[in-house]
Write a structure and sequence with these properties.
Strand content: 15-25%
Mean pLDDT: 95
Number of helices: 19
Shape: globular
Low-confidence stretches: none
Number of strands: 21
Oligomer: single chain
Largest sheet: 7 strands, antiparallel
Number of domains: 1
Radius of gyration: 21 Å
Distance between the termini: 19 Å
């Protein structure tokens, strides 16, 4: 397929109902921020296995300059390795179900829940850039929550994958366990929550009755979360990090996101020179810079207050050249294993007739997140704290008020100082990998945005360095990688493990948009 072209504006998201809601807002006179929030709210209703009211939000907004928005929740004031271990010993949380390298930090349940930032993030975006009220942009989402929507086989598959490890979490089976393919799924408690936020603003969650229910539920299952922790949440505006790839300036968010990881990989690849015509060699070089950058993430990335190396030091040109020089074009490097960060996220982007651009990502983290659903609210809480470690010597150790490392990286690219592309993807560890591949297709190969998104992808498994390649993979490419020492695995065509990428390119006569065939998304506009 080729990109779709729109003269006035468009929205791309991983679900067609969300994209349609954003388009309706644009047609009704709303701007790109209004449309993005409307689309995100619908995603929170129809794709709860990716994002929701109980997750975090990050964005880059272009209004003549780029502004990063980070609504990333912190660990409770009482959260320490000792407190977590005591809660586990008391029967709350399962240390055996933890990410490798976290020293037993639980992945599911109340203990990895940090303050949810999405509601504050939506409110901040609308107040700072929007034209519409929260009630106005939430109308489509509220209707779908109240009246229900038909669950697709794609959505039901996500639910079925989650059942084995979430049925024991409080509220999950009673709420999301009702999702079955072909059946209408209504969430009247969630509709009431959205109505309360429309009436009372974000205080309904951070200082009101919704927050009280969240705290009571979490404390009943071992968390130290308090009302004061929720009330302390703030939204941060930040200057994006910048890096070069060929003639493009790439903007990514600063820590605690892995934006520096994407820029490290792109900077090292740029230092290696143009992608070679040999597809096996080109893929090998991309894989190697990705593996090097993910190793950096393991060694350095955390809450910026806990990092021992600054992002500008990690992205110093001499350092990127040194990484490039360490890559052998004829052999896979012996990179150490890295702590994995699984995917479970929704990325979307929007643009309007005035040139306002939004690159936004919102997430529950691992699928449905923690699996904890707060009674009477319809809110499934995220588990971003699963990224924390219980090792006191780890820069990512859990601590009071500390934010976990985030895989979420909405991106923006400029040419000659002007916006050229908003882009991003879900996929955890795969996010910086997909950024590298998309820009390789767009910049080095001259593909349009839809062709770049459609192209088969590789995904490096950070735990063992193996490379999964989507079918159909050319035998010569696979053989070329294996000859260089790579372990290559097969990945089915359009597998969701390769991410759900979306992009909007700025064109002289409007916009060209692309949406990923690996999900139920669409790019629509007017």
């Amino acid at each position: 397929m080729s990109a779709r072209w729109f003269p006035n504006g468009c929205v791309a998201s991983p679900h067609h109902l969300a994209s349609a809601a954003g388009q309706a807002v644009l047609v009704d006179g709303g701007n790109a921020v209004d449309a993005a929030v409307a689309a995100n709210l619908v995603l929170a209703v129809v794709t709860p296995y990716h994002c929701g009211v109980g997750g975090d939000l990050l964005a880059i907004v272009w209004d003549g300059e780029a502004t990063g928005v980070l609504s990333v929740g912190a660990a409770p004031a009482g959260a320490t390795p000792g407190a977590i271990r005591d809660a586990i010993a008391a029967g709350h949380g399962d240390a055996s179900r933890s990410l490798p390298g976290t020293d037993g930090m639980p992945t599911f349940g109340a203990l990895p829940v940090t303050v949810p930032g999405a509601v504050a993030g939506w409110a901040h975006l609308l107040e700072r850039w929007g034209r519409r009220s929260f009630a106005s942009v939430a109308a489509a989402a509220l209707g779908l929550a109240r009246d229900g929507f038909p669950v697709s086989p794609h959505g039901a598959a996500h639910v079925d994958r989650a059942r084995p490890h979430l049925t024991d979490q409080p509220g999950w089976s009673e709420h999301y366990g009702r999702m079955h393919a072909g059946e209408r799924f209504a969430q009247r408690d969630l509709a009431a929550t959205l109505e309360a936020i429309a009436t009372d603003g974000p205080d309904a969650l951070y200082r009101g009755h919704i927050g009280e229910r969240i705290v009571a539920t979490l404390q009943a299952h071992g968390s130290t979360m308090t009302a004061a922790d929720l009330a302390a949440h703030t939204v941060e505006e930040a200057t994006p990090l910048t890096g070069r790839y060929r003639d493009v300036e790439v903007l990514e968010l600063p820590p605690p996101t892995q934006g520096v990881t994407a820029l490290t990989a792109l900077g090292a690849l740029d230092a290696l020179g143009p992608l070679p015509d040999d597809p096996a060699l080109a893929l090998h070089l991309q894989v190697e810079v990705v593996r090097a950058a993910l190793g950096d993430r393991q060694d350095h990335l955390a809450d910026p207050r806990a990092m021992r190396t600054r992002p500008d030091e990690l992205l110093a040109p001499a350092r990127l050249r040194a990484i490039a020089a360490s890559i052998d074009p004829d052999a896979a490097g012996d990179w150490p294993p890295v702590r994995p960060a699984p995917g479970g996220t929704a990325y979307l982007c929007a643009a309007d007739r005035d040139g306002l651009l939004v690159s936004l990502i919102q997430s529950n983290f691992v699928g449905f997140g923690s699996g904890v659903v707060v009674p009477g609210t319809g809110i499934g809480l995220h588990d971003r704290g699963a990224h924390f470690s219980l090792d006191p010597d780890d820069p990512a150790v859990i601590a009071p008020g500390r934010r976990p490392m985030h895989t979420l990286i909405p991106a923006l690219a400029l040419r000659d100082g002007a916006p050229w592309l908003v882009f991003g993807t879900m996929g955890g560890d795969g996010q910086p990998q997909t950024h590298v591949q998309l820009l390789g297709h767009l910049v080095d190969r001259g593909a349009d945005v839809q062709a770049a998104i459609d192209a088969a992808r590789f995904v490096v498994d950070v735990t063992d360095g193996s490379v999964a390649i989507e079918a159909p993979a050319a035998a010569a490419v696979v053989d070329g990688l294996r000859a260089r020492g790579h372990v290559v695995r097969d990945l089915a065509a359009d597998d969701h493990l390769a991410g759900h990428a979306h992009a909007i390119a700025v064109a002289p006569a409007g916009y060209a948009g692309g949406s990923d065939p690996r999900c139920e998304g669409a790019v629509v506009g007017h």
